[in-house]
Amino acid sequence: MENVHILTQRIAGRGEFLPFSAEHYRKNEPAATQELAAKLQTSLILEDILAIYAKFAKQLLNFSGIQFKSALGTVQTPDCDIDTLSYTFDLNVENSNLGQLIYFSKYPLSVAIEKKLQYFHSALLYPLRNAIMYNRVLKLATKDALTGLSNRSQFNDTLLQKLENCRRYQRPFSLMLLDLDSFKQVNDNFGHKVGDDVLKEFALVLNSSIRGTDSVFRFGGDEFAILIEDPEFTTNKVIAERIMQRVKNSKIMAQYSVTTSIGFTLASSQDTENDVFSRADKGLYKAKAAGRNCAKAY
């Protein structure tokens, strides 16, 4: 594959450690590479591809984990120990950089093993590229183009899944609905460019106000939602107060006198998606009726 270039960087240490199976792969490199390529083509999910690849690579290098870093983020094998030696490879195909493949191991990487890993890399490149392209398409279908938040379609799917988990595994959650007070006046008086800047700033506020287990969505316009894993009203209140405080502290939102109104509710195993949404919406209406710039439960 003349158009494939694999560059090695940041090699933390070198040695002549060879696992017991290296001799086997010295004799069977073409067959092993073909077998790996065939298995890698069975999935378009990055985590699956990395797991399949790791199973093969484990026979060459006694590693403690593998990561793949790309513009889509970082995926890694389960129980990846990043505190061991790291060996990073840039993966390029057709003059395009896919990302970095990082091996973590307690053992030094010999030149011989590095050379054999490159045969595996050649089998990994095109399935990996296909998976990246597939995930980019999925992201476009489920992400709001302006803010980068998940969109209404993704919200509907996530809400149904959370309700199913609530029924089957007794995992209660809450729904928070938010919109921006006086946002229409921003668009009318200052134009949609400023309005877009306010929406992007609010998205940053929301993302910085939640925990890793919570999810933020934009429905369109100035309407947003958060699905919160914790079933306590106190958690909703803490998150709501944090959001309102950060809106108040935001220069751009303060400049255009934009605040937020919030409604929230707890879901139960008897709820439908309409039940949950209706109650949260009533909480939002209560916040508007109370003078805006506040949060109300229903």
UniProtKB/TrEMBL annotation:
GO cellular component: plasma membrane
Record-annotated GGDEF domain positions: 171-298
CDD domains (alphabetical): GGDEF
Entry superkingdom: Bacteria
One Gene Ontology term of the molecular function aspect: diguanylate cyclase activity
InterPro entries: Diguanylate_Cyclase, GGDEF_dom, Nucleotide_cyclase, Rev_trsase/Diguanyl_cyclase
SUPFAM superfamilies found in the cross-reference section: Nucleotide cyclase
EC number(s) per entry: 2.7.7.65
Enzyme class label: transferase
GO biological process: cell adhesion involved in single-species biofilm formation; negative regulation of bacterial-type flagellum-dependent cell motility
Cofactor(s) of this protein: Mg(2+)
One family name in Pfam for this protein: GGDEF
Protein's name in the database: diguanylate cyclase
Organism: Pseudoalteromonas translucida (strain TAC 125)
